[in-house]
Amino acid sequence: MATWFITGASRGFGLEIARQALHRGDKVVATARRPDEIQEALSDFGDRLLVVPLDVTDETQAKAAVQAATDTFGKIDILVNNAGRGVLGAVEETSAEATRSVFDTNVFGLLHVTRAMLPVMRRQGTGHIINLSSIGGFSSAAGFGVYCSTKFAVEGLSEALHQELAPLGIQVTVVEPGYFRTDFLDGTSLDVQGEVIPDYAATAGAVRAAVPGLNHAQPGDPVKGAAAILKIADADQPPLRVQLGSDSADAMKQKVTELRDEALAWRYLALSTDHDDVLPALH
Fold first, then answer.
1. For the residues 220-226, what does the mean pLDDT come to?
2. Which of 176, 127, 163, 182 is nearest to 2 (CA)?
3. Is 137 exposed, middle or buried, given 0-12, 13-18 or 19+ CB atoms closer than 10 A?
4. N or C: which end of the chain has fewer CB within 10 A?
5. Has this prediction a pTM greater than 0.90?
6. Is a pLDDT exceeding 90 seen at residue 94?
7. What residue spans define the domains of the chain?
8. How far apart are CA 69 and CA 63, in angstroms?
9. What CATH architecture applies to the domain 3-244?
C-alpha cells in the first residue's frame, strides 16, 4: 500500500490519479485550492483519504500540507506535482503579470512543494517524485510560448533532481502528456490574453482560434493517462521521462529527428570554436 501526495487534485489528472490510487487500496493526500471539490468527488474512501487545502504558490501552505500528511500517514511514497495552469497568446501579447502568474504556479509552486517534501523522503531513504510536464515541455508552439517555457523549466529541474536524488534512493520521473480530454483548455485553467496583435494572425492567432474547437475533443483519455501514471509509480526502474498520448509520442520523435539533423548540419561550426590543441581530438 503506497501513500500519495497529489497537488491540483480537484479535477483532471490529479483527481483521476487520486481516484484510481484509492480504488486499489492506497492512501492519498489530495490537495487543491478548492478542497471541497475533492471531498465531494471522493467522499467514499474513509480514513485512507486526507484532503488538505493548498495553493502551491504559498510556500508556507506547502510546508503545512506536507506536515499534515506526515502527521496523518507517517510517510509519503509518491509526490505528484500536478497543479498547473496555462496561458495562451503570442509571447509579445502575454503580459508580465500573466507570465509571472503562470510561472508562480507551474515552476515556483512545484519547487515549493518539492522542497517541503524532500526532507521527508530523504529521511525515509525512499520516494518517487512525478512531475507533470507537457508535450510543450520539449516542443514549444506558437501561442503557448510562455506556458511551454514553464514546462521546459520543469524538465530541467527534473533532470537535475534525478541526478541529485538517485544516490539517496529517491526516483524522479517527468511525465509529458499530449492533449488530453481534461478541463485544461477551459477558462478556469487557461488564461487567454486579451491583447491581439494582427501580425501574429497566422501563427499564435491561428492557435487561439483553434483552441475552442479542441476543448473536450482532445485525443487523450485522462482515465487511461492516470492508469499509466500508476504503472510508472509501480515500476522498479521508472523512466526519467515518459510521453503520454500518440500526439506526444509523435512530437517527441519529430523533435529528436530535428535536433539530430540540425546538430549534425552545424557540427563543424561547434567544433571550430575550440582551441587548436583540442580540435584534433574531437574530429
1. 91
2. 127
3. buried
4. C
5. yes
6. yes
7. 3-244, 246-283
8. 10
9. 3-Layer(aba) Sandwich (3.40)
* Cα–Cα distance measured from residue 77 to residue 246, given in angstroms and rounded to the nearest whole number: 29
CA dist., res. 243 & res. 38, Å (int)? 27
Contact at 8 Å (CB) between 17 and 226?
A: yes
* Spatial separation of the C-alpha atoms in residues 32 and 52, rounded to whole Å: 7
* Residue 33 contacts residue 9 (beta carbons within 8 Å): no
Q: Which residues lie below 8 Å from residue 118, measured CB to CB, with a gap of 6+?
A: 165, 170
C-alpha cell at 69: 500528511
DSSP β-bridge partners for residue 32:
53
Helix count and strand count (H, E) for the chain: 11, 9
Question: Distance between CA atoms of 151 and 174, rounded to whole angstroms?
Answer: 10
DSSP letters spanning 228-243:
HHHHHHH-SS--SEEE
What interhelical angle do 12-23 and 222-234 show, nearest 10?
Answer: 60
SS3 label, residue 184:
coil
**DSSP output for 9-68:** TTSHHHHHHHHHHHHTT-EEEEEESSHHHHHHHTTT-GGGEEEEE--TT-HHHHHHHHHH
Residues with catalytic roles: 133, 147, 151
- 134-179 pLDDT, tens digit per residue, is 999 999 999 999 999 999 999 999 999 999 999 999 999 999 999 8
Reading the block at residue 254, the C-alpha cell is 519529430
> Are 190 and 216 spatial neighbours (Cβ–Cβ below 8 Å)?
no
Q: Give 21 or 212, the one with higher predicted confidence.
A: 21
Report yes or no: 176 and 255 within 8 Å, Cβ to Cβ.
no
Give the closest residue to 9 by CA, choosing from 229, 246, 245.
229
